[in-house]
Amino acid sequence: LLAPTEMSSPSLKTGAYILIGVGALTMLMGFLGCLGAVNEIRCLLGLYFTCLMVILVTQVAAGLVIYFQKETLKEELSRIVGSLIKNYDPSNDDEKNLQDAWDYVQTQIACCGWTGAKDWENNEILINKSMTVYPCSCSNNSKDFDVDSHFCDLDVPVNGTATSADWPVHEQGCMDGVEKWLKDNLGVILGVCTGVAVIELLGMILSISLCKNIHSEDYTKVPKS
User: Fold this and answer.
1) In whole angstroms, what is the distance from residue 53 CA to residue 36 CA?
2) Are 174 and 111 in contact (CB under 8 A)?
3) How many CB atoms lie within 10 A of CB 141?
């Protein structure tokens, strides 16, 4: 069975920690912003501005890392998915969520394996069954989507043995499928990212304006000698 440590990598762990940190910072930022605006507290508005700036810088840095380290990330994903496919076992409850997620990816993207269906020839269960079964989530036949089993039987086994070429599955690998999906939806992704960045910039501008207004009001309230 696949040990949990085999499914992890420094890059993915770092990414997960960054996402958790950004999520916590966003919640704190929203609370501070509301509190500072309602009670007109300059220091909280300043902290709100700082949090927004940190989040914006983090997003830009993450985008640059993904762009310049995309080959390294692709190699990491290839290793992780390869281990998942090789040790894929429906009876392993410890990895059930991860395996279900991979089945979902293969079904939604209409792909099979990372580079192709041949990746599944390394799976220990399929090897023991002489490749006469195949992953249902790879199937290009809609009737296989409704079965409860993770593996489907070949209708006509070839001399009791088979290869991935005999399976009724998608020819496209998930790596190519994901890249194609990203290219097809690049405009939407860039639009969402740009929209989020604009909202953050507007929040920063608004917090500065409120701070200036509060400062002006405090100055006018000071009694002149």
Assistant:
1) 17
2) yes
3) 11
